[in-house]
Write a structure and sequence with these properties.
Length: about 150
């Protein structure tokens, strides 16, 4: 699927619940094989207006979108909205991301691959840096997924 087709599909799904499958190459220790992680996120919402999310408002101690917006500094780093609140872009490297909102019903199924062969998480744990491991099982309220890493969106 081309980038243009993916953006069109995202814009058609905006503010709807969806399922997205994406992949990334994991950061591994020196001498380790290349590990690819493929994740299927279910029951996520395309487009996240960070300031209107109830969990964010509770975290910031605010009660409405306007007060929360005053507390937040906006997007961090060189990020800017291309299509608010669905697509953002890194101004430094031009990479675009879809912004998604998770909830208590969101489910993530992750599979690991070495040289194209599926392996268990336990088999790759020793190869991965700590930053690649989610020991707590935390799910962020808002996630940015690179358009180039999306395999499927439905």
């Amino acid at each position: 699927m081309t980038k243009k087709e993916m953006v069109k599909k995202i814009m058609n799904k905006k503010a709807q619940f969806a399922c997205v499958t994406y992949s990334k190459t994991c950061k591994t220790k020196k001498g380790a094989p290349i590990v690819t992680k493929v994740t299927r996120a279910r029951n996520i919402r395309i487009g996240a207006d960070y300031n209107s999310i109830k969990a964010v408002q509770e975290l910031k101690g605010t009660t409405n979108t306007e007060d929360t917006a005053k507390e937040n500094a906006g997007l961090v780093g060189a990020m800017k909205f291309v299509a608010y609140p669905y697509l953002i872009e890194n101004e430094k490297n031009g990479k675009e991301y879809v912004r998604i909102n998770t909830n208590k019903n969101s489910k993530f199924d992750t599979r690991y691959f070495i040289a194209g062969n599926e392996v268990s998480k336990e088999e790759v744990l020793d190869y991965l840096y700590a930053s690649e491991k989610n020991h707590r099982g935390d799910v962020p309220v808002v996630m940015n997924i690179g358009l180039d890493s999306i395999l499927e969106l439905h």
